[in-house]
Amino acid sequence: MTWHGIHGHDDVVEGFRRRIAKRRLASTFLFVGLPGIGKRTFALKLAQALLCERSPEERLDPCETCPSCQQVLAGTHPDVALVAREKSRARITIEQLVGPDDRRMQEGLVHAIGLKPFAGRRKIGIIDDADTLAHGQGESANCLLKTLEEPPPHSLLILIGTSEQRQLPTIRSRAQVIRFQPLEESIVAQLLGELKLVEDATLAAQLAELSTGSLQTALDFADAEVREFRGRWLKFLSDAQPEATAFSKPLASFVDDAGKDAPSRRARLRLLAMGAIDYYRQLIRALHGQDVEGDEVLRKAVASGVRGWNLEIEVAAAALERCLEAIAQVDANANQATLIDAWLDDLAQLRLVGHV
Ligand SMILES: [Zn+2]
Fold it and tell me: How far is the CA of 73 from the centre of ligand 1 (A)?
């Protein structure tokens, strides 16, 4: 089923329909789930439904044509404030939340949602990349605290992040958490075509297979060089005698190729770590005698990883754990070169332990 162009989140739509019908809409929500599965699109569609001039909010069925619906779509609705991390920055800034130094509390999202609704029934604030609020000693998050403790009447705040654990406890405890599931492969393939992101249907199907349920990941793999490097990465992971020192150089230059800005490089490191996590998950399945899920490149790598693996499954689980740790280090802004060297070295060591 599809809700106004949003695929794969019917349970979330139904949940909101029930809350609104019972008039039990919380004032703060935290949307969590993998990047690139439609959380921000959903938040904006929800804003449209709540502010539509023609369709009552409990129907959750925005007309898409009234001035209000059009303004939400165009990003110009006076009652909707959206902030997200700017591409060149590591985190959401204090200025975005509470205005610049000389205009504190006279600009920014917190100020905007404290005002009386201008046109609609509510003020809606959307904070994308909410994971980054926890960085930088939570300075920006502190600015939000008062709003979370005493939400202005008629306000609705939606924070969007990848997991509950990545949020500050103060935010976590004050928000109702809504979990978004990864998209099905067929939905990713469909969206790539529908949104005209990938014209070639065969390529769309191939990218969907690599997506692990995220449209963003599918798009990352649209670059042939990224797909090519994935093959080398999986070969390193499954190699019986991986050469960590030799591989760290090409891996570092692959990460650097993502762009000059640190966020792009971090995104690429995260993509590699997610790929490794998927590899170890499948390796563990194979060691349990279960079928491997994935494309041919991954299946071949797992088959070669299993060969000669004669120790406990725990070793593979430890390698998976080590990749999760690498992601946490990436998010904590660790030095890239040190992180890569230590990570590859640990994975190679574990591979040698696992191999007989
Ligand atoms: Zn409308």
Answer: 10
